[in-house]
Design brief:
binds S-adenosylmethionine, Rossmann fold, 38% helix, alpha/beta, 263 residues
Length: 263
């Protein structure tokens, strides 16, 4: 079985996996550790450019599932005539996103706390569905597509900002598969990749070192405060170092536009 389909039982486990936490206990400390971040995965500027390039509607409905601190929608809502909804499981992230929207006078963007796996609880249909660096929250890409179908209009676009491993790489990752598997899982769901943006077009890795240092600094502060949890925070630092290395050396970062297959 695809390891992307390993059962993730609780919302906390789902959040932990998406944030590369090996221990669920770390989740409650994420708002502290990531306090220096506005974007925590995808590039708000790149995704805004991509929506602008591919939008054909006068007013567009956009949902960002696992929106983090809301950076992507806050940028989008200011540059595209839209109604936006962002959902994330971390309350502190949503509070931050709502506060940012309020400070900028943005009224076309709402953020709410929720478990994004419960798609049956999400009302309405959306022209764009953003999945920004959320990893395996829904399982493999077949399962992901099937879960999202009730939220799609006929010509909706799913923006999948993720990564894959090129076929020629001798590298394995529990959460990231090969491009071939990704394409075949999406096809099995009667969906297709209609466009792909790669590398420099979408990702800015010049910030990786600073981000890693910020994470390290905040974890060391937590170690001073909670010395009995030293191993938990040191484990997170090690994991982040590994993941930043993988992003630079092993994984192809890609933003894929996915639509229903035309019969
Ligand atoms: C790596 S972050 C990406 C955040 C954002 N999309 C971005 O690119 O800035 C993954 C996000 O998914 C959220 N998440 C993971 N599983 C979730 C779930 N089941 N329900 C709600 N949010 C979830 C996490 O809380 C986290 O904010």
């Amino acid at each position: 079985m695809d390891s992307r389909n390993d059962i993730i039982n609780t919302e906390q486990e789902s959040i932990a996996t998406s944030m590369d936490c090996e221990d669920v206990e770390l989740v409650e400390y994420l708002p502290y550790i990531l306090q220096d971040f506005h974007e925590i995965g995808s590039s708000a500027q790149s995704l805004t450019k991509i929506v602008k390039e591919n939008n054909t509607k006068e007013t567009v409905k956009i949902i960002d599932l696992g929106c983090g601190k809301g950076a992507v929608l806050i940028e989008l809502a200011q540059h595209v005539k839209s109604e936006c909804l962002g959902i994330d499981g971390i309350k502190e992230f949503i509070d931050y996103a709502n506060e940012q929207a309020r400070m900028r006078g943005i009224i076309n963007c709402k953020f709410q706390v929720g478990d994004i796996r419960k798609t049956d609880k999400i009302e309405g249909k959306y022209n764009f569905i953003i999945l920004g660096s959320i990893g395996t929250v829904y399982g493999d890409y077949y399962t992901t597509m099937e879960r999202l179908k009730p939220l799609l209009c006929d010509d909706s676009i799913i923006i999948l900002d993720d990564g894959y491993i090129e076929e020629n790489k001798d590298f394995n990752h529990v959460k990231i598969g090969t491009k071939k598997d990704l394409i075949s899982q999406i096809k099995t769901s009667d969906m297709e990749i209609v466009k792909e943006y790669l590398g420099d077009e979408i990702s800015d890795n010049s910030e990786y070192e600073k981000q890693y240092q910020d994470i390290k600094k905040r974890c060391h502060e937590l170690i001073l405060k909670y010395p009995n949890k030293k191993e938990l925070f040191e484990g997170y630092i090690r994991k982040q170092e590994e993941e930043y290395h993988n992003l630079e050396e092993e994984i192809t970062c890609s933003t894929m536009l996915i639509k229903r297959k035309v019969a």
